[in-house]
From TrEMBL:
Any GO molecular function: metal ion binding
Species this chain originates from: Drosophila persimilis
Positions contributing to Zn(2+) binding: C295, C341, H342
The keyword Zinc belongs to this UniProt entry's keyword annotation: yes
Gene, per the UniProt record: Dper\GL18845
PANTHER family assigned to the protein according to its UniProt record, in alphabetical order: LANC-LIKE PROTEIN (PTHR12736), LANC-LIKE PROTEIN 3 (PTHR12736:SF7)
Gene3D superfamilies given in the database record: 1.50.10.10
SUPFAM superfamilies associated with the record: LanC-like
SMART domains, A to Z: LANC_like
GO BP: carbohydrate metabolic process; peptide modification
GO CC terms, sorted: plasma membrane
Protein name as catalogued: LanC-like protein 3 homolog
Family per similarity comment: Belongs to the LanC-like protein family.
Keyword annotations: Metal-binding, Zinc
Length: 421
C-alpha cells in the first residue's frame, strides 16, 4: 500500500434511502476550538517569522479574519478580529524587514509580502479603519507586476497568477472594487505572452506553457492549472445574471486568440487524467509520478476544471472533477498532516467544491467523513507533524478554514480560489 495515505475505512455514501441527513455542528465547532486554542498557545505573534500567508503570521491572521466573518463562528471566538489584527501587524513589520533581504518579487502573494498587505486591507476594512485600508491597498497595488518585470514567474505561490488571485479576492471581500479591470487585464496579457513565449521556445504542444525552476508543473501551486485558472477568473470572463432566470451567465470578452489558446491548453490538461482520476505532477513525467494533494495532482487541478465547467458549460469538465473526487475519497487521506496544501483538509475541499457544483449530498457526506478522519486515533498516531504545524497552508490554520466552510457548505471555497464569486 502507498505509504502516503491511510486507508479510508468508511463505507461510501449509501445511495438509497434518506439523502438529507442533518449533520451535527458541535463536533466541528469542538475541533475548531481545539485547533484555535493550540494556535493561540503556540504562535506568539512577536516570534520571528517571515510573515507570509503560506506559513507565517499573515496566514494565521487570515484564519482569524475568516472566523470573525462567519455567522457560525463569530460568537465562538468574539475576539477573532482582534487576534487577526495582532497577527497581521507583526506580519507587516516582518515584511518590511524581509523586503530588503528577500529575493522574491514584490508581487509574490502566498509566499511573499503582497499577500500580507492584501489580508491586512481586509482586516483594516473589518476594523473600520479607512486610513489603514488605504495604506494597505497602496502597498498591495505598488507591488502590481508590470511588463517591465522581466523574468519572474507566473505560478500561484510566488508568481503573477498568485498576485491575480489576491486582486480577485480583494475585489470580492472589500466593499468596492479596488483593483480596476485594466490593471487585471494587463497582468493577464503578460501571463499569456509569457506562456506563449515559453511554449514556442520549447516546442510545447500546449499553446500556453510555463516552467517553475525549469520544471513544467501542472498542479495548482506551481503549475499550469493554477495559472490558467487565474486567467479564467479575469474580467475577460465576467459573470452576469440573466434577467429571465436565476442562472448565471458568463460574458466572454477575451480576445479570440487568447480564448483559443486557453481552451486548448485546458483541454490538453484534461487528456492527462488517468483512470483513477488523478493528474501527473509535471508534463515531462507523464503518468509516472502522481501525488493526491492540492499542490500537486487532482485536488488542485479541480479548480481550473470547475471554472471551465461554469464558463463553458461542457459536461466533460464536471465528469473529470467527479473522477478526481472518487480518487481523493480512496487515496486522499494523507499522512502528511491536516493542512490544505498537502494535507487532509486541502483534499476534503474537493468534496465541498463538488457539493456546490452539484448539490449532491454524497459530497457533503464525504466532506464530513474527512473531518471525522482527522479526529481518528489512526490519524493521530500515524500522521506526520508538518514543519509549520499551525500555519495556513501546512498546518491547522488551514484546517480551521475548512471546518468553518463545512459549517456553511453553500459558501465554501478554498482560500483565494473561489470559482463561484
Ligand atoms: Zn503542498
Amino acid at each position: 500500500m502507498d505509504v502516503r495515505y491511510l486507508k479510508n475505512t468508511y463505507p461510501d455514501f449509501p445511495r438509497k434511502g434518506d439523502n438529507t441527513a442533518a449533520y451535527d455542528e458541535e463536533p466541528i465547532k469542538d475541533l475548531i476550538s481545539t485547533y484555535v486554542k493550540s494556535i493561540l498557545e503556540t504562535c506568539k505573534p512577536q516570534k520571528e517569522d517571515r510573515g507570509d500567508l503560506y506559513v507565517g503570521n499573515a496566514g494565521i491572521a487570515y484564519m482569524f479574519w475568516k472566523l470573525s466573518r462567519s455567522r457560525h463562528t463569530r460568537d465562538l471566538w468574539p475576539t477573532a478580529l482582534q487576534h487577526a489584527s495582532t497577527f497581521i501587524r507583526k506580519a507587516k513589520a516582518n515584511a518590511e524587514l524581509f523586503k530588503r533581504r528577500s529575493s522574491l518579487q514584490s508581487y509574490s502573494f502566498l509566499c511573499g509580502s503582497a499577500g500580507i498587505y492584501a489580508v491586512s486591507a481586509a482586516i483594516s476594512e473589518a476594523l473600520k479603519d479607512p486610513q489603514g485600508l488605504s495604506k494597505d491597498l497602496a502597498s498591495f497595488r505598488a507591488a502590481m507586476p508590470s511588463d517591465k518585470d522581466t523574468g519572474g514567474c507566473d505560478e500561484i505561490l510566488v508568481g503573477r497568477a498568485g498576485y491575480l488571485s489576491g486582486c480577485y479576492w480583494l475585489n470580492d471581500v472589500l466593499a468596492d472594487q479596488k483593483i480596476p479591470d485594466e490593471d487585471l487585464i494587463a497582468v493577464c496579457q503578460d501571463i499569456v505572452a509569457s506562456g506563449r513565449q515559453y511554449s514556442a521556445k520549447n516546442h510545447s504542444h500546449l499553446p500556453l506553457m510555463y516552467a517553475f525552476h525549469g520544471t513544467e508543473y501542472l498542479g495548482a501551486a506551481h503549475g499550469l492549472s493554477g495559472i490558467l485558472h487565474m486567467l479564467l477568473e479575469s474580467p475577460w470572463f465576467r459573470k452576469g445574471h440573466s434577467l429571465a432566470s436565476e442562472s448565471s451567465l458568463f460574458d466572454i470578452s477575451a480576445p479570440a486568440d487568447v480564448l483559443h489558446d486557453l481552451k486548448r491548453s485546458i483541454d490538453c490538461i484534461l487528456t492527462l487524467q488517468n483512470d483513477e482520476g488523478n493528474f501527473p505532477i509535471t508534463l515531462e513525467e507523464g503518468n509516472d509520478r502522481r501525488l493526491v494533494q492540492w499542490c500537486h495532482g487532482a485536488p488542485g487541478v479541480v479548480y481550473l476544471l470547475a471554472k471551465a465547467y461554469l464558463i463553458f458549460k461542457e459536461h466533460k469538465y464536471l465528469q473529470a472533477i467527479e473522477r478526481s473526487a472518487d480518487c481523493v475519497w480512496r487515496r486522499g487521506f494523507l499522512r502528511k498532516g491536516p493542512g490544505i496544501c498537502h494535507g487532509v483538509a486541502g483534499n476534503a475541499y474537493v468534496f465541498l467544491l463538488l457539493f456546490r457544483l452539484t448539490h449532491d449530498t454524497i459530497y457533503l457526506y464525504r466532506a464530513h467523513k474527512f473531518m471525522e478522519l482527522l479526529t481518528s486515533d489512526e490519524f493521530k498516531q500515524k500522521a506526520r507533524v508538518p514543519d509549520r504545524p499551525h500555519s495556513l497552508y501546512e498546518g491547522v490554520a488551514g484546517t480551521v478554514c475548512y471546518l468553518v466552510d463545512l459549517l456553511e457548505p453553500e459558501e465554501a471555497h478554498f482560500p483565494f480560489m473561489d470559482v463561484f464569486h
